[in-house]
Design goal:
This protein has 328 residues and is of the alpha/beta class. The chain is 41% helix and 15% strand. It contains 11 helices and 12 strands. A 7-stranded mixed beta sheet has the order 3-2-1-4-9-6-10. A 3-stranded mixed beta sheet has the order 5-12-11. Helix 2 links the parallel strand 1 and strand 2. Helix 4 crosses helix 6 and helix 6 packs across helix 7. The protein is globular. The two termini are 32 Å apart. InterPro entries: STL-like (IPR005049).
Length: 328
């Protein structure tokens, strides 16, 4: 494990500490932070570095298209994410290209992550947003009016992915009966049982906030395989991620992360342009908040620098509270 991390750091380089001294340096050195871009705004990466690199020595960025050469000083992987519909494949790509970490944390680039809130959480648990908004029984008429269920990337796509998993499980069982030498990298039947158990006897597709989640090493292989199936059917991110997680673990055993979506409260346009909302709602007990626009098309560079400086100071304040809690 340590060798893997050392190789990663040697290859991709360590960036300078961008914050004050912390009570625990490199608190998250065993986690790979995967920051995902849906839009091609890679020039915001230096700002993200200032926010996270001092505590996350290992970061990869992921997006839909290769940037200009001057941005390649950072580790960037590229996936076909259908304009963000299947952005969850970024985490699977990171697992394949950078194996060996204790866990993999996925966040969108327009989200501010107060990582001190999760510093003491178990790295062996799945972490997900507490905003799990609903579910829909498969192969029945949808009852939920949420528009995404009715799109080509909605309920029917999720049902198609489920059928593939069932077929894969049948193939596995036939291989056992026929005594064929066929290896399966994860327990497919256990995933189907977990989904059934979480649905209290019904197979369901789920929907919820999927802009951040953490998968521990114990589950990364199953996540990567399931992600491939869901991506093949182009299942929408906010359906695929909650459903896959329900196929990995019982819901009551996952760690729920609390946060605020300002776009839902005030509308996306105001939330993206009024920084006062961000600072008003960002408190020490909030694990994430979005949207955070690090660079606006028509804004001065100084405005972005002021925002980043303010956010870094907030992280330092949260760190002081965290350290005080440790030693009190």
């Amino acid at each position: 494990m340590s060798g893997t991390k050392l190789d990663f750091q040697e290859i991709h380089g360590q960036h300078p500490n961008n914050s004050k001294a912390n009570c625990q340096k490199d608190q998250f050195e065993d986690i790979l932070l995967v920051i995902v871009f849906v839009e091609l705004i890679y020039d915001t990466i230096p700002y993200l570095e200032k926010l996270y690199r001092h505590q996350f020595p290992n970061i990869v960025y992921c997006g839909p298209e290769k940037p200009s050469a001057d941005k390649l000083e950072y580790t960037i992987i590229f996936v076909d994410m259908l304009r963000g519909v299947t952005a969850y494949e970024c985490l699977s790509a990171a697992v394949r290209s950078h194996p060996g970490f204790a866990g993999y944390f996925f966040i969108r680039n327009d989200l501010f992550f107060n990582f001190w809130n999760v510093a003491n959480y178990s790295r062996s648990l799945i972490w997900e947003s507490s905003e799990q908004l609903g579910n829909q029984v498969m192969f029945e008429q949808p009852r939920d009016t949420w528009i995404w269920w009715y799109t080509p990337w909605g309920l029917q796509a999720c049902e198609g992915a489920y059928r593939d998993v069932v077929c894969l499980n049948d193939e596995y069982k036939r291989a056992i009966i026929d005594k064929k030498d066929q290896e399966f990298s994860w327990d497919v039947e256990n995933s189907l049982n977990a989904l059934l158990w979480n649905g209290r006897g019904a197979n369901m597709c789920y929907r919820g906030f999927a802009n951040l989640f953490y998968i521990p090493s114990e589950h990364v292989t199953a996540f990567e395989k399931l992600s491939f199936i869901f991506q093949k059917h182009q299942v929408y991110m906010e359906i695929a991620v909650p459903t896959i997680i329900r196929m990995l673990e019982l819901s009551e055993k996952t760690k729920k992360l609390s946060g605020i979506d300002l776009g839902s409260l005030f509308g996306e346009e105001r939330a993206q342009n009024d920084d006062s909302l961000l600072l008003r709602y960002l408190t020490s007990n909030v694990t994430y908040i979005r949207p955070v626009v690090h660079k606006r098309k028509f804004s001065a560079e100084s405005r972005t620098n002021i925002l980043i400086h303010t956010l870094v100071n907030r992280l330092n304040q949260f760190n002081q509270s965290y350290c005080a809690g440790l030693f009190s």
